[in-house]
Amino acid sequence: MIPQYQGAIDRTKVERKYSKDLDIKRLAKSIIKSQNEEIAYTKKWQAKHAGE
To answer: What is the mean pLDDT of residues 19-42?
Structure first.
């Protein structure tokens, strides 16, 4: 799942950079934050369950 989360972050950064719409920029910031949280959670879960 991490590559999907990172892909969402990458695409959203582009939208945030080029959009002139402040609502879109706010939404993009929220998406980036939530996807980074998902990456952190997934990595933590993987470390906890490694070798099972």
So the answer is: 97
